[in-house]
Amino acid sequence: MIQVREVTKxxxxxxVVDHLSFTxxxxxxxxxxxxxxxxxxxxxxxxxxxxxxxxxDVLVNGKPYASSKAPLHEIGVLLEAKAVxxxxxxxxxxxAMARTHGIPRSRVDEVLALAGLSEVAHKRVGAFSLGMGQxxxxxxxxxxxxxxxxxxxxxxxxxxxxxxxxxxxxSGLAAEGRTVMLSSHLMSEVSLIADHLVIVxxxxxxxxTTVADFVTSEGVRVVTAAPDALRTVIAAPxxxxxxxxxxxxxxxxTSAREIGLAAATRGIPLFELTPQNxxxxxxxxxxxxxxVEYEAAR
Length: 298
Ligand SMILES: Nc1ncnc2c1ncn2[C@@H]1O[C@H](COP(=O)(O)OP(=O)(O)OP(=O)(O)O)[C@@H](O)[C@H]1O
Known about the structure:
There is one protein chain. The protein is α/β, with parallel strands linked by helices. It folds into two domains: about 1-210, 3-Layer(aba) Sandwich (Rossmann fold), CATH 3.40.50; about 220-275, Alpha-Beta Plaits (2-Layer Sandwich), CATH 3.30.70. The protein is about 35% helix and about 30% strand. Strands 5-6-7-3-8-9 form a six-stranded mixed β-sheet, with helices on both faces. The chain has a four-stranded antiparallel β-sheet with strand order 11-12-10-13. Strand 6 (about 150), helix 6 and strand 7 (about 180-185) form a beta-alpha-beta unit. Helix 3 packs across helix 4 (about 105-115). Adenosine-5'-triphosphate binds near residues 34, 38, 39 and 41. Adenosine-5'-triphosphate binds near residues 34, 36, 39, 40 and 41.
């Protein structure tokens, strides 16, 4: 289990992670999503003790990672842009890691096979494609047979077959009762792989939900002769109305049926009344739009 508790990280005056709390549970794949610069990598670095929170704390399997005696067994990590010496072969890279952690040679062969790298085990890493590099990073993360697996952008650079491979691998690891967490800035990728979604923007938690619940956050598109009158009629706690055109409204928090009935009782003409099922990608973009604009405007 990974527990992030009220974590804030500041670099100088800049708050990169802002009172962030969430839990990645065993037996589940947690997708950690957010636009570029949302603070995902920083959070992951704090989880493994490479960065220290300004306030709040992080627990891995109930304790701070730094106090773990066999860290590779506790948590396996793929962090972005992890440096592997380009002159090394895949097998020599993994063997060096294994030796320093008392892991047997047989496990190196196992993870190479698991990552589909047995054939290229003796090739220099410098000659690897981006996808092969990602596979090697994942193999390294699994070396210690860890209870928690945390991967930063693991499908970055992978072709569709590679994405499918990651999905099968990670759901298998979760089914074994491990805690699996992966980050991405692409909803389309994460929705294929994760059950649980933690979405951040500007370092803040925007949503902690399931993929299924996230898509049901739909709205209703209404085209009417009297948008202002309709707004007044449907106003209620939990109902939000956004003007999307001269005669157009986008309404959330109520149903097309309720809007239609309310309009009929007041004699408000409706030209269109369309429930909209936002795609996952659209819902994600709506949720994180402010965070992205902030990034672009900096
Ligand atoms: N050591 C540092 N000093 C100052 N600012 C930093 C430092 N590390 C990260 N940042 C800033 O923190 C913000 C969040 O970065 P982070 O890499 O955690 O985001 P991210 O969500 O992982 O994004 P990406 O998907 O682009 O990797 C960025 O604006 C980045 O410039």
